[in-house]
Design goal:
CATH class of the largest domain: Alpha Beta
Helix content: 10-25%
Structural class: alpha/beta
Distance between the termini: 74 Å
Number of helices: 10
Largest sheet: 6 strands, mixed
Number of strands: 18
Number of domains: 3
Length: 431
């Protein structure tokens, strides 16, 4: 099954907690602190792998987690860093942050990679909190929190040439006789419901050609499988527009040409501007010198587009068509490739959390005063509530950052209850 879209959740590793430990050696009755630092949590990394063709694996597994960092140990030993998690994707996959809708990375080439979620920093051991006043700190720093994201993966085929046209005009047949591909072919609409790829070998070289499933009127609005089909044309350099020149189903070839190009234009203006060749198929059913065909050919060529009469099942005219495609690609490759325009995710802004050190004061419905904040949560998690020095460190942080003043402004008085996460205490002024 060809899967080209998936939603997953990723989580980096949590940083290991710092260790609270004291030297215990013979003849050293009052050894100082020797708690080591925690290890850094593992990163989540996406990487393009040329051996992958679809996003099938992500259909069954939706959550991916990197390894947490190990906690620090006594004797100033550092905890082990968590293993990074590398998630492999097919080249041509766009990685999107679901919350913002912004593109994190377009993994175009095999080997392209980036860090999507950084692991939390390791917490500092109690050896770092010793000073001239606090000789035996009985607390350490908690490890940095893990980062969790919802990710949308969207794959766009990477092919040099895209075959476009209405259903049942012979695109799959052309692909099969031109390449080593073996697509399913039958004489009814939408035989192809997923894109097929094949390699055209010509002039001791080659190019990749994709059969884009049949487009119908309204495809640009999502009719049929419009959006799923059209997005795979975006990366192609050249389009071969396959048209039933015989009108075997009562269609007008000129109308078909205009309708398909209109769908391309309505979906993305740049698609309609891609170089095109018209493959006038089913010529075994029409006279090449008939007025109808000559009129059609003149109509297309007046737009500066070459027309190649072919009979795909008989492999007639296909060599000339593919030769022209090869030479056009040679010219196009000399030009600077046009980069796709995305609104990219800002990793620097994501790393610099402006609200990290802020403490927020509020009152809940029961009249309890509540303090909240990201840095506050980290210090709270590091607090040893059985140690007066550790509690004093927490209180000093709260006071230094103006939280007590905030609480007083909204009505805090002596005897009132202050809640910090799951810890409650009464507030009294010091004399």
């Amino acid at each position: 099954m060809f899967v080209d879209r998936a939603k997953i959740t990723i989580r980096s590793g949590k940083g290991g907690d710092g260790c609270v430990s004291f030297r215990r050696e013979p003849y050293v009755p009052e050894g100082g602190p020797d708690g080591g630092d925690g290890g850094k949590g593992g990163d989540v990394i996406f990487m393009a792998d040329a051996s992958l063709r679809t996003l099938m694996d992500f259909r069954y597994k939706r959550k991916y987690e990197a390894e947490d960092g190990q906690n620090g140990m006594k004797k100033k030993r550092f905890g082990k860093h968590g293993e990074n998690l590398i998630i492999k994707l097919p080249p041509g996959t766009v990685v999107i942050d679901q919350e913002t809708g912004l593109v994190m990375k377009d993994l175009v080439n095999p080997g392209d990679r980036f860090v999507a979620a950084k692991g939390g920093k390791g917490g500092r051991g109690n050896v770092h909190f010793k000073n001239s006043v606090r000789q035996a700190p009985n607390f350490a720093e908690a490890g940095g929190t893990a980062k969790e994201r919802s990710i949308l993966l969207e794959m766009k085929l990477i092919a040099d040439v895209g075959l476009v046209g209405f259903p049942n005009v012979g695109k799959s047949t052309l692909l099969s006789v031109s390449t080593n591909s073996n697509p399913k072919i039958a004489n009814y609409h939408f035989t192809t419901i997923t894109p097929n790829l094949g390699v055209v070998e010509i002039f001791d070289n080659g190019f990749v050609m994709a059969d884009i499933a049949g487009i119908i009127e309204g495809a640009h609005t999502g009719a049929g499988l419009g959006h799923e089909f059209l997005k795979h044309i975006e990366r192609t350099k050249l389009l071969i527009h396959v048209i039933d020149a015989s009108g075997s189903e009562g269609r007008d070839p000129m109308e078909d040409f205009e309708k398909i190009n209109n769908e391309l234009k309505m979906y993305n203006e740049k698609l309609a501007q891609k170089p095109q060749i018209v493959a006038a198929n089913k010529m075994d059913m029409v006279d090449e010198n008939s007025s109808e065909f000559l009129q059609f050919k003149a109509y297309i060529e007046a737009k500066g587009i070459k027309v190649f009469p072919i009979a795909a099942p008989l492999n007639e005219g296909t060599y000339e068509l593919l030769t022209e495609a090869y030479h056009m690609l040679e010219k196009l490759e000399l030009e600077a490739p046009e980069e796709e325009t995305y609104e990219f995710f800002d990793f620097e802004k994501d790393e610099v959390d402006e609200d990290y050190r802020e403490i927020y004061a509020s009152v809940d419905e029961s009249g309890v005063y509540v303090l909240n904040g990201k840095q506050l949560k980290k210090i709270f998690d590091s607090t040893n509530f059985n140690d007066s020095g550790s509690l004093r460190y927490l209180y000093k942080y709260i006071e230094k950052n103006g939280a007590i003043e905030q609480l007083k402004e909204i009505g805090l008085d002596e005897g009132d209850t202050i809640k910090i996460f799951d810890y409650e205490f009464e507030y009294w002024e010091e004399f």
